[in-house]
Amino acid sequence: MQEQSATKSDRELLRAFQKERSPENFGLILDRHLPLVFAAARRQTVNDTQASEAASAAFFALARRARSISRNTVLAGWLFKATRLAALKLQRIAKQASPALSASETSGQSETITDSRMRFIPLLDPALDKLPSKLRDAVLVQLVCNRTWIESAQILRTRESRIRKRVAKSTRKLMSRLHKRGLKLDSETFQSLCVGCGSNTTFPESLAGEILANIPVRNTGGPAFALTRSTLARLTWAKWKRWMTTALKGSAVLTVLLGFLVLGAYLGFTKGPLLAWFLEWSIRQSVSKAPELVQSARPWPADPVRLLPSALDIRTSEDLFHVTNVWKAHLKFSPDQWQAAEPKRIPPLPGMMSGDGKIQLKNPKAKRSGLSGVLGFEFDWVHADFEFGGVMFPDVAARLKGNGTFLGSLFGMKRSFKVKLDKFNQTQVLGETEVVNFTNLIEDRSYMADALGHEFFRDCGVPSPRTAYAYLDLSVEGQFAQKPLGLYLIVENIDAAFAKNRFGSKAAPVFKPVTYKLFEDIGDDWSAYAAIYDVKTKATEAQQRRVIEFAKLVSHADDAEFARRLGEFLDYEAFARFLGALTLISSYDSLFAMGQNYYAYLDPRSNKFGFIPWDLDHSWGNFPFIGTVETRERADIWHPWVGENRFLDRVMRVEEFRKTYREQMRELLATKFTSDRLGRRIDELAAAIRDSVAAESTFRLERFEEAVAERKLPRWTGDPTDPRRTGHQIKRFIAARARSVRDQLDGKSKGFILDRMMPNQ
What's the domain range around 346? Predict the structure, then answer.
C-alpha cells in the first residue's frame, strides 16, 4: 500500500476516495499523512491517548468533507488545521477538568530533548496557525515534512523558485513571532528544529487500524465522533470567519478608496501632480511585487568567439534591418552627460483627465506629445559615444524615449533610447540610417509583438517601419562599464528618409496625431492643428489646408455628401489594408482606443491620406487595459474601435469602403493571417533571440517561452495587469482570432464590441 501511495499525488488519492469511499482508498492518504497529523496532535495535547483522539478526529473530518474539498487544497495544510482545532478542543476540556494543569504538562514532550527544542515545540503550532495558508503549507511540506524542493513544488503546484521564496518569507515571520515570545533563533537553527516534526514522533501501532475501521464515518455516537463534529463545526466557522473578515476588509478598503476619490476630486486629483504621483507609485508597487522586472541582465553573448554581425557590412538600410540578426550595441556617457540625460521634471498638464475619463495627450509645456510629457517628464539630447556592430560613432546625440515603455522602466536601468548619429557630426551615418530607436520591450513578454506586427503590416502592403534586434550595454565613466541592459528592438525612424523610401519624396507630409477625435474641425487656422498633428517632415500651406478640408468634411458633411466625397481624401484600398491588419491583430493601444501610436501621411502622388502603424508592443490581442483575451479574440471586425470614434464610424458606414474592406479582409485572412505562416515566423524569430532573452533574466526567459509556445497553456486568470502574469500566447491568439474573423465574414457569428477602457473581468 505504501509503495502504491508514493506514486500518486494527494489530489489523486483524494479523488480516488471521493469516487469510491472505501477504507482501502483512504488508507493511502493515511499512510502518507498520519505521522504529520499525530506529531502535531502530540505537540498540543497531554498524552498519546489525547493525541490519538485529535488525530482520529482530523482524519474523520477529512472523510466527511472529502467531496467538498477544493481541488487546489493542500492536504497537509488542511489536516494541520483540523488537528489544531481538535487539539484545542481537547485542551479546553482538560483545563476545565484540571484548571491547575501547567503549560509543561500540556506540551506533551519528553524531558530528554534539548532546552531550545522544548521551548520551540509548544510555540510552533500557534505561530504556524497564524500564517496565511500558502505560507503555512510551504513550511509544512518543505520543512516539517522534510520534502525535497522538487517534491514540494509538485505538491503545492507551483514553481520551485516560488516555494523557496515562500519558505524564506515564512521563516522570517515565524522567527519574528518566536522572538517576541522570548525564543531567539537564527534561520539555520529554526529550520533544523522544524525538520522531523512531522515524522519523528512514534504513534500507537493500533491507531491506523482504528481509524480505518471507522471509515467511511457514519456513526454519530461516541466521544471520537463528538470531537469530529466539533472539529467540522469549527472548520466551517473558520471558513465563514475568513470570508467575513475579507469582506469587511474589502468594504473598509472600498470606503477608504471612495474617500480618496472624493477627496481627490475636491483637491484636484485630475489636475496633474497627484495623478502623476499616483502612477509613479503604482509602478513602484509593481516593481516591489515583482523585482524580477528590474533584474540585472547578464553579458551577451556568453561565447566570446561567437561571430556577430558587423556594421562594416551595412551599405543600405536593408543591411541593417534583418530581424533575425541580433546586433551588439554600446552607449557610453560621462557622469555629467548621464546626469543630463536623466528625465527633467516640468509642470504636469493641469486638467490632464478630460470629462469622459480619457487622459489628455499633449502638454503645452512639453517638447513632445504623449503621456510622459503630460505627466511632467522631459527628455533632453546629450552628447555620448556609440558603438554599433563593432564600429565606433563618437559624439552622437542620445536621449531617453517612450511613454508607456519609459514609465515601465522608471525604477530600473532598462530605458528606451533614441540615438541621432549626425546631430553633432553630419558625416556619421549607419548605411542610410541617421536615427536609431532602441525600444526596451519591457512590457512585451514575447519580445516579438512589435517586430512581428510591423512585418505583418509590410506583408499586407501597408507602409510600416522595419525592425532589427540589438543587445545594448551601457557605460558611465567612473561608475560602471559595459553594464548589460538586455535585448532591445531597433525600430526604423519615421522621418524624411522613410518618406523618401515609401512615397518617393522627402517632402511627403507625415503626421503623428495625438487626439481621440481624428479629423475634427477646430477652425480655419493651421496653428490650431499644428500641435495635434505634429508634422515630422514638411507640409506646404496647401497640404496643411488639405488636413483642414478633410476635418470639415468629417465633421459637417451629411451621410450622402460624405460617402460621395470620401474617396477624394482617403485611399480606400490602402486604408482598408491598414484597418484590416490592425483589426486582425487586435491592437488597441492605437487609433482604436488610445488616440496615438500611429502616423498619418498625405501621399504627394495621389493627394490622399494613408496611415502607418507604430508601437505595436501591445498588439496580437495583448492589451490588458481593454477587454479580456477572449473578447479581444472575438472583437467585432465591423466595429473594432472602443467607444466613440466619429472618423472610423463614418468611414465604416460608407458602402463602397465596406466592400473594399471586406475584400481586403478575406484576402489577408487567406494569405497573410494564417496560423501556419505566422507560426513558422514566430519560431524563426524565437530561435534568433532565445539566447539573448536568456541572458537578460531567467524570469524573462520563462515568460518568453510561454508566449511563443506551440502547446496551449492555462490562461492567466488573475489580475491582467499583474507584473507576474504569464506570457500571452501569440500562436493561440492567431488561431482563435482567425476562426472568429472567418465566422464574422461568413455571417456565422457576430463579433464582440469592446466599449470599456478597463478589463472586462
Answer: 274-497
